[in-house]
Structures are given as C-alpha cells and as structure tokens.
Amino acid sequence: MASFIFSFKVSLFLFLFSFLHVYTVTCAEYEVGGDHGWVIPKGNNADQMYNQWASGNRFKPDDTVRFKYKKDSVMVVTEEEYQKCQSSHPLFYSNNGDTVFKLERPGLFYFISGVSGHCKRGQKMIIKVLEPASPPDQPQNQNSTDGKNNGSVQRPSIASPINVMLLVTSFIGFSFY
Which superkingdom (predicted)? Predict the structure, then answer.
C-alpha cells in the first residue's frame, strides 16, 4: 500500500509539473531591418523598406524590436507625427545605438528616426501588433511568408504566477503525503 501511495504522489507531481510547461508563452525579438539595421534606406522603394520588412513579420504583444544604428535615434510617435516626419514630444526616444522596444499591446506603433531629414528619406516604420489568440498559441515561428526568420529570435517568457502557484502547491502537497 505504501508503494502505491508513493507512486501516486510521484505521478501527481509529474502531471502538475508538466502542466506548468503547457502554458508557457514565447515571445520573439526582431532586429529591425534584418541585416540592414536602422539606416537611411537606399534604392527603389526606399520610402517603404521598413514597412515592407514589418509587414513580413507577425508581431504579438510582449515581442520586442531591436534597433541597431550609428549616430541616429529612434522615436515612437503618434500617427500624425509619423505623417509629418517630426515630433517635439515623442512617446519614446532613444539614441544609444542599440535600442530595444517592447510591444506591450495590440495595435499600431509608429517609429521614426529623430535625426532631421532621415524620416523624409524613408527611415520610418509602422508595426502592427496582433491581438493575442485565445487560448494561448503554441510556440511557433511564423515570422515571414518566405520561410526566413527576418532577424527574430524566440525566447521563452516567465511562467505566469498562477502556474508557479500550482507548482508550489503541488510540491507542498507532495511533501505532506
């Protein structure tokens, strides 16, 4: 009888522990512009380079975008400021050469260069963040239609507090048997 109870406890613990891993969510980090980085676009369709790059990716809440650049800056602005290519009060500003911005909500995000004249030469981008799926998506890498990852790296996020609580509760319950 004692071995049956022990086996039951181990099985219950393993089941609850594996349950914790079912609901972990993955996020992705995207390097803006892929191999090009955050620079003034050149060539045909230069004014649409970053929007074409962004439209080839599927952004979700909690994903991040990384801007790599030299002697430039990144600003998150309103739609009106995006259209005018200028902002005196951006929603976000960084000029450290390696900026990471977290896409915290679904919707549109408007990015422009803060250096005078760069935005009008095509250094601007709109990112659309999709609504989260319900129930949570399984980890997948649907970053582009051509099968390339366009500079994204998947990384696991921290497990939710309720899953951690379930794990701790199951461990405590296991200890008292």
Answer: Eukaryota
- What distance, in Å, lies between the first and last C-alpha atoms of the chain? 13
Surface-to-core class of residue 83, CB atoms within 10 Å of its CB (0-12 exposed, 13-18 middle, 19+ buried): exposed
Residue 116: phi and psi, rounded to 5, are -55, 130
Helix residue spans in 89-160 (DSSP H): none
Average pLDDT for 154-165: 52
Task: Please identify, in words, the CATH class of the domain defined by 25-157.
Answer: mainly beta
Please enumerate in sequence order all residues whose Cβ is within 8 A of that of 167, keeping only pairs 6 or more positions apart, or say none: 16, 17, 20
Angle at CA 116, nearest 5°, toward 113 and 122?
Answer: 50
> What is the 8-class DSSP label of residue 59?
B
* Spatial CA neighbour of 57 closest among 158, 137, 154, 155: 154
